[in-house]
Amino acid sequence: MKEYNHGLRPNFEGYVRFGTYRYRFYTNSLGFRDFSARQVPLRADRRRVLLIGDSFTEGMTVIFDESHAGLLYAAGQRRKQPIEFLNAAVVSYSPVIYYQKIKYLLSRGLDFDEVVVFSDISDVQDEATNYFCIDDHPEYRKYCVNPDTGNKPLGQWWQQHFVISNLMWMLVQNGLRRSSDSREANSPVPDDLRSGWTIPGYQVGNTYAPLGIEGGITRSRQNMQALADLLRGRNIPLTIVVYPWPLQLALDDRASRQERIWRDFCADNCKAFIDLFPVFFAEKDAHKDWRHRLFIDGDVHLSVAANRMVFETVAKSLLPRD
Fold this sequence. Notes:
By secondary structure, the protein is of the alpha/beta class. It has a single domain, classed as Rossmann fold (3-Layer(aba) Sandwich), CATH 3.40.50. The chain is 43% helix and 13% strand. It is built from 14 helices and eight strands. The chain has a five-stranded parallel sheet with strand order 5-4-6-7-8, sandwiched between helices. The protein has a three-stranded antiparallel sheet with strand order 1-2-3. The longest helix has 21 residues, at 212-232. The radius of gyration is 18 Å and the shape is globular.
């Protein structure tokens, strides 16, 4: 997708694999992950809520029915007045793609009544290092290396355009991650470097080049502001959801920059701000095996139980009583 860098193949039905996990995967006619390879009309006969985020909201390693997006979809369909939740999330998305993809969907005539962004901690690194070729802001275009691939190496771009290849790429990354987990406990692993920007003094090396951490934060805000302004012009409310990674829980990052940035942003731009940090920390405080409970083995993605916890919390705001 030239307009927003990468997406999922429409009307896909099959299995995908991530590490030792193999799970059923469907996409609908819009190229959104769904419960089946179904046709989704552009015009809606009911209220629609568009969800967007990265692999956490795409639902890495779990079947759609067990992901927080899938649980929201099912709960919305059970209402007296149904609400349709559409899941536009894809692995490696960040604010510039949230904005560009939603702008593209609106230009195609897709109807939706609200947007919920699940803002991931890795977004800051993505904004600091990638997707310069699709950014509307001219100051970032100077970093554009390959307009045809949106700045990512060609192999990575190719793999992210196809469901099966994309997950095979994730398998390679996951294997590297598991190898890293066998290092000394105080040696940073790739996922720690992607989330370490919220921890004061945490050494992330040059993994945020060329913009750096502060530049990644600034660009994240700029693209989220562009999204908020786009939606405001169409009277579509915006909600932002934040949640921690394992590093934030392990290092007791309770007053996280991730929370502060988007809480402050939402004061002027959002219908609601949903903070999942307290919910995750409550689980950590109550259970010594919190890592196993909340995240899949050897990785940062959410377990089935954590997906349900996310669903139960956000549903209080997104699914008011009939």
